[in-house]
Amino acid sequence: MSTPTIRDRSFEEEALPLMDAVYRFALRLSKSPDRAQDLTQDTFLRAYQNWEKYTPGTQAKSWLFTICRNLFLRREERKKRHDEIVTDVADKDPRQISREATVFMAVRDRDPEGEFWRQVVDDEVLAAIDELPAEFREAVVLSDLEDMSYQEISEIMEVPVGTVKSRLFRGRRILQKQLYEYAAEQGIVPTRASGDATGVGGESE
Amino acid sequence: MKWVEELRRLLRKVRQEEPTECAPGGIPCEEATARTFEWLDGELDPEMEERVGRHLETCARCYPMLVFERSFREAVARIARDEKAPDELKDRIMESLKEEGYSSPGASRE
After folding, report:
1. What is the reported pTM?
2. A108, B68 in Cβ contact below 8 A?
3. B window 81-110, beta carbon within 8 A of A
């Protein structure tokens, strides 16, 4: 066996502990355990081969996620990825998004503290995340599941911070709506007499 | 003094019309609502964080919304902790790294 180098040591300390995080990210991107495993393996191989390009002590997670995302996009043959901004969302002011009808407005008289969020099962949350359009899904996963900053997400997704915000806020609203509808179907949160499980939408109040 | 009384009356009138009276943190509900996610994400500068926080936590109208949004975020965040990469994948990655010349420092210390 060859002697471990400083390079191997820093790779072990900074990159290897992130296998679970990279796998989770790959799983959310690809929505397929098999493809996620391939993506994760290739991400670590690529990272090891290029480890000298990484500055030790910086954001290893962002760096690995960027590699993983690029591999994924290449495989998806999404050549126009930089142009794939959903314009009506990218340009939307967070203030405008916040004015739209929300799940909170729909349930504030029945479950103002959002108790039902705690009762929605994890698998359902994951399924709802997987159903989000890709742009929103990435932003939600990186922020809410991986706790990354807007700046880090902006670098990984190669979009401005303002776009990250719009996608994240919009993604959360869509996710809330999907989970609310599920909760209403399951009787976790009571619907109004008129049965307005679909009463939350993009319309302005 | 009549002019003092008049001044007080005018001040009262201005204060009643001034939105800051019903806008904790010096910002209106609409702005606090629009910044709720940024506040929960810890993405505001310190001054705005303080103002938005003061508003959200003391405004009777906005506070329930804050509790609701926080509860949602926690529900989403909790799932991340449970998902792990399969052990066989980790083994496979270690094998392929070794083929690239990686030598585990952890193994050499054992």
Report:
1. 0.75
2. yes
3. 82-86, 89-90, 92-93, 96-97, 100-108
